[in-house]
Amino acid sequence: MRHLLTPQDFSVSETEELFRLADDIEVHPEKYSHMCDGKKMATLFYEPSTRTRLSHETAMLNLGGKIIGFPSGNVSSATKGETVADTIRVISCFADIAVIRHPKEGAALVAAHYSSIPVINAGDGGHQHPTQTLLDMQTIRRLKGRLTNMTIGLCGDLKFGRTVHSLVESMSRYDNVRFIFISPPELRMPDYVTDLLRDRGISYDEVTRLEDAIPKLDILYMTRVQRERFFNEEDYVRLKDFYVLDEKKLASAKKDCYILHPLPRVNEIAPEIDDDPRAAYFLQVHYGVLVREAVILTLMGLVDLKSFA
Amino acid sequence: MLNVGKIEEGFVLDHIPAGRAMYIYKHLGLDRLDCGVAIIKNARSGKMGKKDILKVECPIDTLDLDVLAFIDHNITVNVIKDGEIVEKRKLQLPKEITNVLHCHNPRCITSTERELPHIFYLADEKREIYRCKYCDVKYEENDGEVF
Asked: Which residues is A197 bridged to in the sheet?
């Protein structure tokens, strides 16, 4: 049984094969549109996330499958005290694949442990969000034509921002990728990520001013400071507007420095940037559906990744 | 030098840093075992200056070597049979330990689903770093844990 709990569940070569499968789905959608006929996907969203849920559901519908599930924890048996382990054992009897988002870190691992169907982690608290990472990587790969030889700047909430941890871990597996971490001191990258980079001999810088980093970047990954990750409202209010990317700051960026953001954005990217050809955050959404289709087909064993080697 | 009699079957934990014997006694659960235990404090040691020693008269299987290795993998474990040392066991940091440490991360699934085992894995052998299997948060000695 294969699950997707962290982006590292796919090796570097499998990840490339998965992206080639996503490329093929984009060019020949009709080849794949009935592959999940008669199959059901359960979307178990204990924490609301319209974008991620609808992206997974669209992916399954594009493949001919059907959807069951719940959109937030307060309409599920979790409110009655049912454990994740019990829920997934029940859902395993209904569906062929499950997508789970849960506010607690490690919830998807627990689900995978007790499940008899493949589990996709669609975000477990501030921990992992592998399909987001894969779609981020696919966006970079398609825009730059490579995943090697680049400097990636990550800006904003690097402490609680799960997408940045996953992205750094995954991109650090590629040759000659350097990182610049741009955050206020309170929201710096956690040590488990920086330890990993040191062990792999990968260089990184930590700065607080976005302006200092921008000219050096090939990719700028902006993040939102998320209210739900703070226990203290005061800290959230103090840090939420620390960074705003506007035309003035972007003026010193390279002509092919693409701007990514996991969305939803609040005000960390000024709307005036949206029409800049380097703004790639809505393109990420497009690749997200395709990558999730590739993940569903792979985990359900309906496509052999080796055929895209 | 204080003399403590030989044991017939059991184990001798040697090279315990001076003052740590009671700590290990407690965390190996020796207080709950119905067997003879000799706790030797501040014994003279050529290598360490002073050291503690624990002599326990019970089958070696009763000892949780993973817990001991996690506490201090430099402790020497001498296995005794028929009054003689038959084996010197070298301890290695366990790859995974279950229900020894508790995850204190309030965002971890173990904070709400109480029946789950608390599992930590050896994330970095060089730096002796353990992380929670669920949330990857690092175990810190000063985070209020008993160890």
From this structure: none
Chain B 30-89, residues with CB within 8 Å of chain A CB atoms: none
Of A105, A191, A192, the CB nearest to B105: A105
Indicate if A50 belongs to the active site.
no
Question: Could you give all domains of chain B from N- to C-terminal order, each with its CATH number?
Answer: 10-89 (3.30.70.140), 96-132 (no CATH)
Tens-level pLDDT at each residue, chain B (147 residues): 566 677 888 999 999 999 999 989 988 888 888 888 999 999 998 888 999 999 999 887 788 888 889 988 889 999 999 888 999 988 999 999 998 889 999 999 999 998 999 999 999 888 889 999 999 988 886 654 554
Output phi, psi for A37, to 5 deg.
-55, 130
CA distance A257 to chain B (A): 32
Closest CA–CA distance from residue A203 to any residue of chain B (Å)? 19
Give the nearest partner residue to B109 out of A106, A126, A231, using CB atoms: A106
What number of other Cβ atoms are within 10 A of residue A187's Cβ? 20
Active site residue A80: yes
Chain B residues closer than 8 Å to A191 by CB: 138
| Domain covering A131-284, topology | Rossmann fold (3.40.50)
ipTM: 0.85
The one-letter amino acid code at A258 reads Y
Would you give the DSSP letter of residue B138? B
CATH of domain A7-128+287-308: 3.40.50.1370
**Residue among A307, A298, A304, A308 at smallest CA distance from A59:** A298
- Partner residue opposite B113 with nearest CB, options A84, A125, A191: A84
Q: What is the pLDDT of residues A194-252, one digit of tens each?
A: 988 998 999 999 999 999 999 999 999 999 887 766 667 887 777 777 789 999 999 99
> Which residue intervals of chain A bear CATH 3.40.50.1370?
7-128+287-308, 131-284
C-alpha to C-alpha distance for B115 and A300, rounded to whole angstroms: 30
Q: What is the pTM of this model?
A: 0.88
